[in-house]
Amino acid sequence: MSLPIDHGAESSSVELGGRRPLRGWRVLRRSPRMVVGLCIVLFFVLVALYGTFFIHDGNALSSNILKAPSAHEWLGTTQLGQNVLTQLIASAGPTLLVGFAAGLLATVLAVVVGIGGGFLGGRSDDLLNLFTNVVLVIPAVPLIIVVSGFLKAGGIGPIIVIIAFTSWAGVSRVLRGLTLSMRNRDFIAASKLSGERTWRIVIVELLPNTVAFVISGFIFTVIFAILTQAGLAFLGLGDVNALTWGNMIYWAQVDGALEVHAWWWFVPPGLCIAVLGTGLALVNFGLDEVLNPRLRSLRAIRKKPSVFDDIPLGEAP
Amino acid sequence: MKYFARKCGFYVVALWGALTINFFLPRLLPGNPAQIMMGKIEETSTPPPGEYKILEHLMGVGQGNIFSHYWSYLVQVSHLNFGYSFSQGLPVIRVIYQALPWTLVLVGTATVLSFIIGTTLGALAGWTRNRWLEALVPVTTFLTSTPYFFLALILVYYFGFILHWLPLSGDSDPLLLPAWNWTFFSSALEHAILPASTLILVQLGGWMMSMRNMTLTTLSEDYVWAAEAKGIKSRRVMIGYAARNAILPSVTNFAISIGMVVGGSILMELVFSYQGIGYYLIQAVENDDYSLIQGIFFFISIAVLMANFIVDMMYGFIDPRTRQA
To answer: Model confidence over A134-151: pLDDT tens digits?
Structure first.
């Protein structure tokens, strides 16, 4: 829902995102939300990449059954004596892999369909746009559940593909709008006149100007993919023995963690998903603020005296 | 008028797309799904006469080429006859009729409520730039990033298992029969509180954030300044000038999000064993009851398309500019 689908904002933000190159540090200084978000995401990426060096076997059993969190087992143990913290670390990798891989694939599709269609125009654009809008209104999650039900998909690969193929349309629509508004700008006309090839114009002239929106769409899809994969795992679809945060909650529910009040078993993986999702969403809010300066002007507006400050307006805005 | 005709055309295409997906799904299966299903139905009950023919039509197998399969599938679907569900021991259409009202009322109410609450909070946050409302943003972002089923689990655990305030699962007291009386109604309401809260809490943040952002964007438009300069009352500027335009993107998103909510409610219904459409879809997937899967996916698609269609039609009235495009 945080996708900038609003057409009203598009036209105004294009100029700002397009003309001035984004300088990393200035962006970060302006948006504390983005800094917090990046730190959270970076933390989970590090855990996913290097966490497994510190643990032996994520699923190792032990005789300590259903122990509450203590100094020895920080997050307690499961019904089979598995250490919840170890499981959590081992699950970070596969969970993030699904999220980022599906996000990447969906973004590539969105760029090809959205920017390609928008730039080509004419009949092919009409068709691609119609296709995009149809995909957009067909309910994605039920479709994913049904397809995984029919496929009996084992493993992570098929799930990545299914999620990617159902979640690219929203981003594609935004990118198409953006491309349409840029297609007739002077700098595109100039490169056309100087005889550049179409694919070169798209890649060298057009794509760099949409990069912030592509990233924002990518992050949005990653959040969707992680949430969807967790949901599928919780339904017991896909490989139930793979270590992901969704599967941890699935087993906790199946083995009756609620009935025995073992909150430490299902709360940590859910919290990890939610915190990672929040981190990614905060990065997106930061991007929004960069793309649309009116959003970040919260403090600036307060300080700047306005023309209307002297006029009593009841409860002044 | 052209706007409405074009929209109608679009939804016909979308409906055709959904039907076609539903047609190709059973082809993912190895073997002959109609025979497999027939075997399963015979295990538990005597199938109604002509059942095998219906299954052949729905699963797209039997004599003829793919086009004749497709045609007989469309004819079969247009009769709304999806065959017999062996896992529920009822015709598919009966299962759906039973479950549909529960989901529609619950999801519909929760979606509209969260839209109203979230949009109002967002408009207030953007307009007043209130520090407390701004502080809500990270909280609602966190809730939005929480998986539906996880929040549902937490709520069940806390209010059901620890506090014993609310029932753990189900759509109403199992001893009561559905009837138009207060006992049944209050029982259904009591069972709906936790599922509805889950849906509302998860969705709230999205509405709030987009409305806040759009309000901030709209507030710096010239016509808002002009209205203020003319001395129009603050409240009127906020509602009639700023909010009216700021809400437009939210209305578009509202249509798209209906599809998402239906998806989220599937997981939520599983946690609460709330016997709506999603609950039966999961039952069908777990039992490989392909007739039921196909029937339910058909109805979910129709419901989401209809909701989108209605919102699109409303949008034409709310924002006259779209009708000219």
So the answer is: 888 888 888 888 888 777
Q: State phi, psi for A244 to the nearest 5 degrees.
A: -135, 165
pLDDT > 70: what percent of chain B? Answer: 94
How many residue contacts between A and B have a Cβ separation below 8 Å? 218
Instruction: Report the C-alpha gap between B108 and B189 in whole angstroms.
Output: 14
User: Quick check: is A10 in a domain?
Assistant: no
CA-angle at B11, arms to B9 and B17, nearest 5°: 110
**d(C-alpha B21, C-alpha A31), whole Å:** 43
Which two tokens mark A76? 């307690």
Residue of A nearest to B134 (CA): A298
Contact A150 B262 (CB under 8 A): no
Interchain CB contact of B146 with A (< 8 Å): yes
d(CA B240, CA A155): 53
Cβ pair A281:B144 closer than 8 A: yes
Whole-model pTM: value is 0.84
Contacts with B, A 108-127, CB within 8 Å: none
Question: Quick one: pLDDT at residue B176?
Answer: 65
List the Cα angle A248/A251/A256 in 5-degree steps. 125
Distance from CA of B182 to the nearest CA of A (A): 31
Domain span including residue A202: 43-56+71-293
Q: Is A40 on the interface with B (CB under 8 A)?
A: no
Residue B174 has pLDDT above 80, yes or no: no
Is A100 within a domain?
Answer: yes
List the 160-189 stretch of A: residues with Cβ below 8 A of B.
170
CA atoms within 13 A on the CB side of A26: 5
ipTM reported for the complex surpasses 0.90: no
Domain-embedded: residue A311: no
Domain membership flag for residue A269? yes
CATH code for the domain in which residue A80 is found:
1.10.3720.10
Total tally of structural domains belonging to chain A: 1
Cβ-defined contact of B259 to A230 (cutoff 8 Å): no
Spell out, as residue ranges, where chain A has pLDDT lower than 50.
1-19, 297, 299-317
